[in-house]
Specification:
The chain has 258 residues and is of the alpha/beta class. The chain has helices spanning 7-10, 23-33, 52-59, 94-100, 119-123, 148-158, 177-190, 193-201, 205-208, 222-232, 251-256, and strands at residues 16-18, 38-42, 45-50, 82-85, 103-107, 113-117, 141-143, 162-167, 170-176, 216-217, 236-241, 244-250. Strand 8 (162-167) and strand 9 form a beta hairpin.
Length: 258
């Protein structure tokens, strides 16, 4: 990495949401701007972050089933999954920070918020050496006929953010925390409270998964994978060999390889 590059050379405009906003507004903003998480502010002071995962967890909790998504505030989902840097610090400081946190907040010398750095911001200018096998993670699969309640349980118990959806051992889509959060939000807005528990139990993975599925071959270069992720604004790409799933590459696995 060049010694002449600094945090200010890669940081992007901070994307914020008020602590008093509702989580549906936060979810819409994350999806609309292709960002995760958002910086949560209160009176112009950073108080934490809100992620698609935390929104999905809040909307998927049975005790919140009788509460409209438009009545749940960001304050109820605030996390502290971020750290801070200053714009004139060397770019090298970002690597270990982004290996530990989803987001790096950039402050000026007066401790005012002026920017943010995500994995995508760093990968746009600095990429792992080696080949694709150095950045592959294990991929987890789930059948398209599986119930969403079982999907959520696997996500929570095993801390899995995404699954490749299969039908007869063939990949047909992907399901992520974003799909769960969006589905739960839409579901709670259109289904009456007294029917929600029964209907949710009958919701299937195929009802909420994302298609089509983008995948790369095991001979693809790391640069090509990153270019695909950034151009399509996606956070992960399955890897296949002879049509068989061999793993998955995520922005997180790429940052870990730096």
């Amino acid at each position: 990495m060049s010694e002449e590059m600094y945090v200010k050379d890669v940081m992007s405009k901070p994307v914020t949401i008020a602590k008093s906003a509702v989580i549906t507004e936060a979810l819409d903003k994350m999806i609309g701007e292709g960002i995760d998480p958002l910086i949560v502010v209160n009176n112009n002071t950073v108080v934490g972050t809100v992620s698609r995962q935390s929104v999905a967890a809040k909307l998927g909790t049975k005790r919140n089933s009788d509460i409209s998504p438009n009545s749940i505030h960001v304050a109820n989902t605030v996390e502290e999954d971020f750290t801070t840097v200053y714009p004139d610090q060397d770019l090298d400081v970002l690597v270990p920070l982004l290996q530990a946190y989803k987001l790096v907040v950039v402050y000026d010398e007066d401790h005012r918020l002026i920017g943010q750095v995500t994995a995508g911001d760093l990968l746009a200018v600095y990429r792992p050496a080696g080949n694709i096998t150095d950045v592959i993670e294990d991929a987890f699969t789930i059948d398209l006929e599986e119930r969403v309640v079982h999907l959520r349980r696997r996500m929570i118990d095993d801390n899995i953010m995404r699954f490749i959806v299969t039908e007869n051992d063939q990949m047909v889509g992907m399901v992520t925390e974003t799909d769960v959060a969006t589905a739960m939000r839409n579901f709670r807005e259109v289904v009456e409270d007294r029917h929600q528990d029964h209907r949710i139990r009958n919701l299937l993975v195929k009802d909420i998964m994302s298609t089509p599925l983008l995948a790369v071959g095991n001979d693809t270069t790391i640069d090509a994978v990153i270019d695909l992720m950034l151009s399509k604004n996606i956070s992960s790409v399955p890897v296949v060999e002879m049509g068989k799933l061999t793993g998955i590459i995520t922005r997180s696995s790429l940052i870990k390889a730096l």
